[in-house]
Amino acid sequence: MKKTRNKLSFEKLPTTYEGLVKLHMPRPIRDKVAYDNTVEVLDMLVLPYCAGELNADQDDYAQLLTDLVEAYDKENAPDEPEASGLDALKYLMEEHDMTGSDLARILGVDRSVASRILKGERNLTTAHIKALSAHFGASPATFLD
């Protein structure tokens, strides 16, 4: 299968389902090239979709391409290990630009205890998990292993 030749913009995309199918025939994705081609077309539809700018034909077409990409991803994406509670905590801290001192303050513990938690040398207690859940607005299960 050939790679799509020209980058199109949303404004140049067909507005009918038939026209969209002529541009890129939706088929089950069996290889990386077909995947890349489908994603390329789908990428042009994402922002207009989010802005509610697609007509009914474009919306149906975008949904079909999304289903095809998701099916391929499900079959071909490597299984990612589930994140631990500590991984989730580190991620949330990074997203909120927090330091170990900030964590200690939230947990109501000494900085050294927070440091040991972040190194994996000490587990989170029930009280810690409750405090983190309240602070981040996350389910307590987020911080469990």
Q: How would you summarize this macromolecular structure in one to three sentences?
A:
This protein has 145 residues and is mainly alpha-helical. The chain contains 7 helices and no strands. The N terminus is likely disordered.
Which properties best describe this structure?
2 domains; 7 helices; 145 residues; 434 Repressor (Amino-terminal Domain); elongated; mainly alpha; 59% helix
Could you characterize the architecture of this molecule?
With 145 residues, the chain is an all-alpha fold. The chain folds into 2 domains: 10-76, no CATH class; 85-143, 434 Repressor (Amino-terminal Domain) (Orthogonal Bundle), CATH 1.10.260. 59% of the residues lie in helices and 0% in strands. Helix 2 (32-50) crosses helix 3 and helix 5 packs across helix 6 (111-119). It starts with 16 loop residues before the first helix and ends in a 9-residue tail after the last helix.
